[in-house]
Amino acid sequence: MSNFLITTTIFIVVAQCVRANDIEDKQLTFTVSHSFDSGTEIEYVTRGVLSVPLARPSESVFHQTPLSASDVAKLRRLSEQNDLYRVLVAHDQNDASLVVSSFAKACSLYESELTDHFRVTLDRSGTLLGVSDFISQQCTGVYIPDHKL
């Protein structure tokens, strides 16, 4: 009987360690896309890739693609029109159920020199639930040179 209890206890401890290691080793990758379009025909282009280690989400890394001259002009136009900047985050681009979006005033993003902070919300298993795009800059109408974007 005592061998059975010891074996069961060892199995439970090993199972918990394996589960903990799965979480420690698991890294999620999200594609972040954005749009400078307004109206009903919204087209998204890739902004970058967000990598999130589940065991240490504070060590997340965002690899961002620099804006093209065309994108800078589109962002400036959206800002001048007091329109919205849109963000789309996808865990797997082939699965529409794992896509979430957010938006912010384009002038805030423009005047912050493209400095924003994403908050990606996941459930305990790492399933994508939501995204928020925080921009601390207020819209004042200031001109930002292209090289700062």
Summarize the structure.
This protein has 149 residues and is of the alpha+beta class. It contains three helices and seven strands. The strands form two sheets. The chain has a five-stranded antiparallel sheet with strand order 3-2-1-4-5.
Question: How would you describe this protein?
Answer:
By secondary structure, the protein is α+β, with helices and mostly antiparallel strands. It has one domain. The chain contains 3 helices and 7 strands, in the order H-E-E-E-H-E-E-H-E-E. The strands form 2 sheets. The chain has a 5-stranded antiparallel sheet. Strand 6 and strand 7 form a beta hairpin. The longest helix has 24 residues. The N and C termini lie far apart (70 Å).
Key features of this structure:
single chain, 149 residues, alpha+beta, 5-stranded antiparallel sheet, two-stranded antiparallel ribbon, 3 helices, 7 strands, 28% helix, disordered N terminus
- Largest beta-sheet details: 5 strands, antiparallel
Structural class: alpha+beta
Q: Main sheet: which strands, in order across?
A: 3-2-1-4-5
What's the count of strands? Answer: 7
What is the succession of H and E elements?
A: HEEEHEEHEE
Query: Helix fraction?
Result: 25-40%
**Poorly predicted runs of 5 or more residues:** 1-20
- What share of the residues does DSSP label as strand, in percent? 25-35%
Mean pLDDT: 82
Rg of Cα set: 21 Å
Shape: elongated
Number of helices: 3
Count of spatially separate domains: 1
